[in-house]
Amino acid sequence: MNLLDIIKGRRSIRKYQSREVEQEKIEKILEAAQWAPSASNRQPWHFIVIRDPETRKKLGAIHSHGRFMKESPVVIAVLGDPEAHEKYFLCDPHQAIQNLMLMAHWLELGTCWMGVRGTSFEPKMKTLLGVPDSLHLICTISLGYPNEERTKTRKALSEIVSWERYGQRK
Ligand SMILES: Cc1cc2nc3c(=O)[nH]c(=O)nc-3n(C[C@H](O)[C@H](O)[C@H](O)COP(=O)(O)O)c2cc1C
Hints:
Elements: H1 3-9, H2 23-34, E1 45-50, H3 53-62, E2 74-80, H4 91-106, E3 110-115, H5 122-129, E4 136-144, H6 157-160
Antiparallel strand pairs: 1-2, 2-4, 3-4
The chain binds flavin mononucleotide.
């Protein structure tokens, strides 16, 4: 697969096989996240890997659009640390998340990003995962072998790109 095929082939997966995810694959995925670009290289991120079925069940019950965390064999929670970078504590983890999802797809695993930060249930999830007050729980990501195939389209490039000045077509 070339890089564009990997990028275009990734889909949000919400149905998973029960098959466990190999530890080596999880560590490769985390390594991909670790190497995302980071403002001043402060790396204001932290990742919690959750395999425990009870915790995943609770996460799925708390998140209004993430019930399938109960079925995905792994969930990764992504945290942002404003003490490490007060301006880019969200931006940098978002880049790490994209790396993580693309690496997972390349390893034939599915993921789905579930936004958490700023929701009414962020505090409850933080308590469940023992996250210190000073950190933000940006999202949870389900991870596992896919049990569905999905298709999606995107807006045409001509709709989202200007050349030289806003609104100017090629
Ligand atoms: C910031 C963000 C928050 C998201 N939150 C959820 C969510 O709570 N539940 C969910 O099922 N999908 C969630 N998604 C996945 C989007 O629905 C999905 O990326 C979009 O429909 C495009 O589909 P694709 O990822 O298969 O291309 C989220 C994606 C992003 C980027």
